[in-house]
Each structure stands twice: as structure tokens, then as C-alpha cells.
Amino acid sequence: MEKIIIIGNGIAGVTAARHIRKLSDKEITIISAETDYFFSRTALMYVYMGHMKFEHTQPYENWFWKKNRIDLINGYVEKVNPKEQSLQLQNGQQIPYDQLILATGSKPNKFGWPGQDLKGVQGLVSKQDLDALEENAPNNKVCKRAVVVGGGLIGIELCEMLRSREIPVTFIVREDSFWNGVLPNGESQLINEHIKEHHIDLRLGMNLGEIHGDESGRVKAITIKETGEVIECQMVGLTAGVTPNIDFLEDSGIELGRGIKVNRYLETNFPNIYAIGDCAEQHEAIGNRRPIEAVWYTGRMMGETVAQTICGNKTKYNPGHWFNSAKFLDIEYQTYGWVFSERNKKEYEKHFHWRHPEEKVCITMAYHADTDKFLGLNTFGIRMRHEVFDRWLTEERSADYVLEHLEDANFDPEFYKAYENPIVAKYNSDTGSRIQTKKKSWKRILSLGA
Amino acid sequence: MSNTIDRSMALTGEPPKALNLNQKLATLFGMGGMGILILALFNINFQNRGLWLTLSLLAISGGIIWFTFASYIHKQPGIKNDGVMFKSISSRGFWGWIAGIALTGFYIVLYFYPQYLGLTKDGDNTGLIALFDPLSKLLSGNPASQWFVYGTLYTVAILAFGIKFLYKYRHNAYERLRTISVMFFQTAFAFLIPELMARLNGEGFSLPYYDLKNIWPLNYYNFERYRVNSFIDAGDIGLALLIFGILSIFVITPILTYKYGKRWYCSWVCGCGGLAETAGDSFRQLSDKSLFAWRVERWVVHSVVVFVTLMTTAVIYSYLGNDTSKYWLTKTTFLIGVATILTAIFAWVMIYKREQLKKDAIYGAVGYFVIIIALIGIHFFSGDGNVFLFKSETLRKTYSFLIGSIFSGVIGTGFYPIFGNRVWCRFGCPMAAILGFQQRLFSKFRITTNGGQCISCGNCSTYCEMGIDVRAYAQKGQNIVRSSCVGCGICSAVCPRGVLKLENGPTKGRINSQDVLLGNDVDLMQLVNENK
């Protein structure tokens, strides 16, 4: 029986394993040094905040793996030897494989800051990081102030976590507005305001200069590069992005860039070794995507895809329309298609922005300046229907059409206030269009009777 | 490695677990109100009972509301689950067990030893019940009973904790409306109207105590002889109420459940649901989500339905006579009627909905159907005697003890802090099972999963009071169509990625299933999802 080894039990590796099992009887083994069982990485924050216990973050009951004949090994892979088709665990054990899937995920970026390896300095990616956080910031007596460095999704989540225990937080963001490399200005501005509402000491346009330790090697303060200001703190969160977790592959002969280099079939330079999820790097970016996509959903899609190839149906990784979501403190964010920030905007990309006068609700729609083709939508505080937007993108609908039919796409809970009318009114006045909202139609939403 | 959890336990007295000063004062204030009740329970004789009762109820409600504002006023509107798993009351810790034991004790006394609450058969009430006499006399004109005391406290709990829930979910219009609805139905229909109706009773006219929203089989005693007699004796109004009771289960309920799912009842109207959603909200995360628990749930709750059907049939059968002056329905026509209805439902499901049933559901349905029809058959062949082998009175008493008292009261509410707030609704309520059966097979309601947006975080499953593993569906891109779902909407509320939406839509396309989720290669999606 062919033996498949998967390194990493995150969403990418586990999805691959589940799909291989559905399609075949191959022997499947998942190796992870992080935890015994698969858990949802994105849910770690809720464990620290007390919304869930760690076991709640495990999507499958513990009997699931045995029942589906997926073997689990808790161990750290030290070396991969492609020529002998085997790998070596830290405890010396050699494990042979026929096909190997690398799904080792990411680790936090460290940019060589002085003091970055002091005690109390950490990222937030793994279960071990969560355990470290309980150690470094269990409460506001032990941790009188925390500093979070890096204005991305993990950074703001870490701030939210620390605030749930009423730990004062300073949030150092390199950009002059939160996440504005990705978000258009209006949205980024809205989140800036919301961060302050949560009593987070937001420092925009600042960089970390140095981390200072005490005599026991534990962090005691940081210096801000631009101002020289010294901020006393007992914990420093490094959340300036992540980088593929591939150090153990250095001498393996597997082609590496920033990540593990793969072609569209997710194959490395060895025919029976694949890489998926955060650690994989496409030779050439697909469409507007980045060569390395460290996103939950893309990890899952690569897992779905590689399982096909391994089970004999060679399949390209060919993701559909881009989508993503996040939650910034209390504000939910969804995106469908491509909406770029002013910094990265294409020359043909035009934006329509609407923001509610009082509530923290806004949308930005991107459309083609010449053809009016709808390119993408960001929403803050409004939920949208994925299927509807996916279809509109496929059908290459116009901006007018999308706004006219916005009620079809609304996914907010029943009885929520609807914003379609003010949105369309603003659009009409901005663009001189004269469109009107159409009533929600189940026929259109579910493509019934078409 | 339960490192995190161990450390969290060591967090004694730190936010978000610690109570702030205002919360502590509010607790003290509310406990003061409880103290008055406890003093009354131990027969401290209050001079001005009306005043002390008012003080007590106001202090209890005031304490809860004060606590609410102390908890949330300094926070932004949004999900308020910080520290739920750290607090001992909401995570089966010390205070959870204390609360569970106290509640259970209260229910045992209430159901089986009301004399300790001060109920006096001949003569004036004493103790706790006497404290409630002034209010009872004000409403119905009669002295209080243990049920009046219970009803009052129950209503106060729904109202005060309802305000807590409203404020906790102030950003969520669905939760706000739903909570106002349960607060209204409890206060008006369960509490005030029946008491006021009792005022109408006088010479030659007497209606049974009737909470109109309490439908058979939840209201398992609705068709017992004494009630039916008194409906009939009360003339047109009584008859109208009796007919309403029958229409409720056979006409009104199916229509509403078809249109909106069983939530229209379970989380918008029902009193048991009302208490669970308000006072029980802090315990929703304690329900068991394992596959094993689900299997137990299906067998237990459907057995209760069979039990209540047999019991009610036997009870009605027992008093139907050949006396056509009162009952035009004879024993035989009644039994044939019951058998016909059951056969029709059974046949409909087996013919049209068979493919939607799991194997064990089919075994269960066939098994129970055979048993019921056999029992009815035995009766016909064995001549007059006891229908269903037992005396109807034995069945009735057993049901009322096991299900009516122990299950719905002692376990159902007493064990809130241990097994979660919907133990009764999930494992025991025959009404929920019947509505659920319909919701699963014949309703427009579903929880739609939003394409590929699920991140498997588990908030939805954790906070599902019915123990549904919502995530198991969401991460497959599959809509949630489950008989037990009461439509509380909390899974959708706590979802950080906007994945879940409760809605009523066309029955076509309601049940879907995808192996490859939206967002991936369209050809691959088509290939995999169609080859299933």
C-alpha cells in the first residue's frame, strides 16, 4: 500500500488527509510537533479570552482519526531525505514514505531587532505561543503593559486578547494608518477609530527600535525608533507578518525560496514531494494573488487540490475568485474579489466608498474605470453572501448591477437594519448614475428556475 | 497539554474573571432580595407581606439589572463572552455545582414537598407561600399556591435576565426582538392572563387554568377528563378554548413551523425556552456536542413522544363512554382515529421523506409505529379492558412524575449549570420533538452556511445550547437542517466571520452538501461535488 506522509496537522495538511482518505485506501500518516490533534489555529485567541477551552477548537472528536485510518505521530521532523524517500524525527526514528506532503505552516517574522529573543517576547501563531502568552501575560498584575509590534490581523487580535484581561496595550504600527497596505483609506481610518474605542494605545507611523531586558533576561521595556520614547512593558508581541516554517529543509535538496517552491500542481522539484498551505511558494503568482498565501482558505483549497493529484487525478491549483474575512475587535470584515489599497491600486481601479454617519459600518466597491466592470467589494459591519458575489464575479457584472441587486447579497441576521438605500443614494450622487435597489429575490439568489 | 486551562484556573480574581466593585454590590443587593424570601421560607412572619414581597422582587430584579450594566456598560456593543470558560459559575466550577444543587433542591421541594414552602390545605398559608398571598389575591382573588410562587419567580427571572440578555446583545436585532417576544409571552400568557381568567370563574362557570401558548404535548394534561369536562361545562368560551387547544397542535403549529421553523415556538414563545434563553443564557456552552450525546438525544426524546402519545390516548380513551350526550366520540372511533392519523404520518414520511432519514431513524420509526399499532390492535382483539396493557391512570401518573416533574423540572432546570440550559428541550420535550420532526422534513427554515468562509473556530458549536455541532456543517459548506435547532440565533451571532444565517427560504436547495468548498477551482468543485 502506498504510504503518504504529511508533515503538519494544520488546515492544509488535515484537509489533504481527509480528501485522500475519501478518494483512496492509501496509508496516511500526519506528523506534528505542535499538538496531538488538529485544532483551528484561528481560534487560539478565543482560548486566551475564555470564550472557549482548547478542546473546543478541535473540529473533530478524537475517535475520528482512528476511524478514518489516519495515523497521527507527535514528533518533530528534523530532516527530509528525498533521495532515500525517508524522513528523520528528532528522536532518531526514520520514517519511509512514498509521497510526502509538506504542510508546515508559518512562523512569526523577526527582523533582527535588538532584544528580540528575550524572555517575554513572542509571536502568536502556534499552540506553544498561546501557552507562552499565558506565562508572559496571565493578568494585569504580572503584565502591567504589553507592546504589540506590527499592524496586521494577528497584531490586532493579540491586542484584543490582552485587553480582555484588562492589560494596557501599546500597539506599534509601521504604517501611518492601520493595515493600509491592504485596506483603502476610509476603511483603515474606521478601524483606527475603533482601535482607540477599545482603549488601545495606537501608535501609527512608528517602528520598534530596541527591546530592553533586565538582568534575568526578561523584557522590561522597548524604545520607539522614531521618537526614542521608552515604554516599560512585561510582554512584547511580534506580529509583523509570518514567514514559511522551512528551516529543517535547508540541506534537503528541496528547492526553497522564501517558501518551498512549487509549480501549479503543488509539486516541488521532487516528483513525489508536495508543499501546500502557508509554507508553499508558487514560482509565479496566480492572478492578483501573492506567491505565498498565508490564509486559512487557501491552505484548505491546496489540501483539496493536492489530494486529487496524489490519488491519480492530476489537478492544477487553480483557485477561484478571491475572498477573505476577518474580525477587527467588534467589526466584521469580508472581502470578495479584489479591492486594493490606494498604495497598491491598479491604474484602472476606481473606488466607491460609503460610510454610515454614526455606526462603524462601511463598504468600498472597486470597479473598472472604463468598463464599469465590478472588481470587488469590502464590507465592514455588513455580512455578504459568498455565493452571490462569487457568481457576480464570474458573470462579470457591472458596478451598477451589483449595487442594484445588493439586497440579494445581504447576509446579516434577520431584522438587521438594511443599508442598501443610503449606499445606492451615495453611489448615484457620486457617479451620476440613477439606479434603484431591487427587492431581494430567492430565485436569483439560489439560481432557481433559470 | 492543558497548560492553558491550568493556568487560567490560577487566575484567581483577575479580569475577565473577577467581579468589579459594581458587580459585587449588585450581587449583594440581589441576594438581599433572595434573603427576604429565605427568611419567609423559615417562617419569619412579615407584618406587611405586600411590602416585603415587593421589596424582595424589586431587589432581585434590580440586582440582576444593576449587575448587567456593571458588566457591559464600559464595553463596546458586540460579543460578550470574555472569561466565560474561566468563571466557576459558567464552567461547571464550584459555584456552578452550588447553583445546580440549590436549584435541584428547590425543584424537589416545589414538586414533592410544597408543605415546606408553607402550603396549607385547610387554613391560611404560611412561610414563603403566604408571602405571595397578597399578589395572588390582587390578580386572581385567591390565596397563593406553590405554583403561583413558582410562576411569579419564573416570570421575574425571565424579565430580569431578559433585560440582561437584551443589553448583552444590544447590537443584534434578531436577539432583541426574540427576547422581547419571550418576555411578553411569559408575562402576559403564562402569568397574567390565566390569573385574570380565574377571576371570571364563579357560580356555574369555571375555566381550567389555561396558558394558551402551552400546547399539547408539552401541556400533556390538556385533554385530561377534568379539564375537558370543565371546558365543555363552560359553554361557548370553554368549547372555543378546547377547540383552540386541538387546532394549536394540528393546524396552527404545522403552518407556523413550515414557514419559520420550530423557532417560532421554542425560542420566541415557549416558557421553558424563555427561561433557558434568559436565565439560562450563561450556561449554553455546557451542552454536550459529542456524536454520542446526539444519539442518546434522538432515542430519548422520541421515546418521550411515543410515551406521551400512548398516555394521552389511554387517558382520553378511558373517559370516553357510550354516553353520547357529552361525548359524541366513542372509544372505538377515537382509537381508529388515532391509528389513522399515525399511519398517515408514518406512510407520508416513509414514502416521501425516506431518503432524508438515517438508518437508525428508520428503525426507530418502524419500531415505534409497529408497537403503537400492535397495542391498538391488541385492544380490539382482546375486547374491553386496558388499552396499552396498563391502566390509563398508571400511565398518566408515571408520565406526570417522570417527565412532567423529574425531567422538565428537576433535571431540566435544576441541572442548568451542569448540562446546559436546554437539557429538557433537547432530551425530554415531546413538543420540541414533534416540531423538530416537522422542521427537519417539512419546513422552509435552515441555517445557511456562507460558501467557503468558515474557519472552523468552534464558537458556533461551543455556544449552541442544543448541542448541535454547527461547525461540522459549516466547515463542509453545508446548510444546517437539524430537528433539534431552536433557532436562538447565537451561532450566527458569535461567528466571527459572518458564516451563518438563520432564514426561511425555498425548500428547494435547502439541504446541500459540498466536499470541495466555494472559492476553489470551479471545475474541481463540480467534479467532486457531483461524483458524491
UniProtKB/TrEMBL annotation, chain A:
<keyword id="KW-0285">Flavoprotein</keyword>
<keyword id="KW-0274">FAD</keyword>
<comment type="similarity">
    <text>Belongs to the FAD-dependent oxidoreductase family.</text>
</comment>
<dbReference type="InterPro" id="IPR050260">
    <property type="entry name" value="FAD-bd_OxRdtase"/>
</dbReference>
<dbReference type="InterPro" id="IPR036188">
    <property type="entry name" value="FAD/NAD-bd_sf"/>
</dbReference>
<dbReference type="InterPro" id="IPR023753">
    <property type="entry name" value="FAD/NAD-binding_dom"/>
</dbReference>
<protein>
    <submittedName>
        <fullName>NAD(P)/FAD-dependent oxidoreductase</fullName>
    </submittedName>
</protein>
<feature type="domain" description="FAD/NAD(P)-binding">
    <location>
        <begin position="3"/>
        <end position="286"/>
    </location>
</feature>
<dbReference type="Pfam" id="PF07992">
    <property type="entry name" value="Pyr_redox_2"/>
</dbReference>
From TrEMBL, chain B:
<feature type="transmembrane region" description="Helical">
    <location>
        <begin position="147"/>
        <end position="167"/>
    </location>
</feature>
<dbReference type="InterPro" id="IPR017896">
    <property type="entry name" value="4Fe4S_Fe-S-bd"/>
</dbReference>
<keyword id="KW-0813">Transport</keyword>
<feature type="transmembrane region" description="Helical">
    <location>
        <begin position="25"/>
        <end position="44"/>
    </location>
</feature>
<keyword id="KW-0004">4Fe-4S</keyword>
<keyword id="KW-0411">Iron-sulfur</keyword>
<keyword id="KW-0408">Iron</keyword>
<keyword id="KW-0249">Electron transport</keyword>
<feature type="domain" description="4Fe-4S ferredoxin-type">
    <location>
        <begin position="445"/>
        <end position="473"/>
    </location>
</feature>
<feature type="transmembrane region" description="Helical">
    <location>
        <begin position="361"/>
        <end position="381"/>
    </location>
</feature>
<feature type="transmembrane region" description="Helical">
    <location>
        <begin position="401"/>
        <end position="419"/>
    </location>
</feature>
<feature type="domain" description="4Fe-4S ferredoxin-type">
    <location>
        <begin position="476"/>
        <end position="505"/>
    </location>
</feature>
<dbReference type="Pfam" id="PF12801">
    <property type="entry name" value="Fer4_5"/>
</dbReference>
<keyword id="KW-0812">Transmembrane</keyword>
<feature type="transmembrane region" description="Helical">
    <location>
        <begin position="299"/>
        <end position="320"/>
    </location>
</feature>
<keyword id="KW-0479">Metal-binding</keyword>
<protein>
    <submittedName>
        <fullName>4Fe-4S binding protein</fullName>
    </submittedName>
</protein>
<feature type="transmembrane region" description="Helical">
    <location>
        <begin position="332"/>
        <end position="352"/>
    </location>
</feature>
<keyword id="KW-0472">Membrane</keyword>
<dbReference type="InterPro" id="IPR051684">
    <property type="entry name" value="Electron_Trans/Redox"/>
</dbReference>
<feature type="transmembrane region" description="Helical">
    <location>
        <begin position="94"/>
        <end position="113"/>
    </location>
</feature>
<dbReference type="Pfam" id="PF13237">
    <property type="entry name" value="Fer4_10"/>
</dbReference>
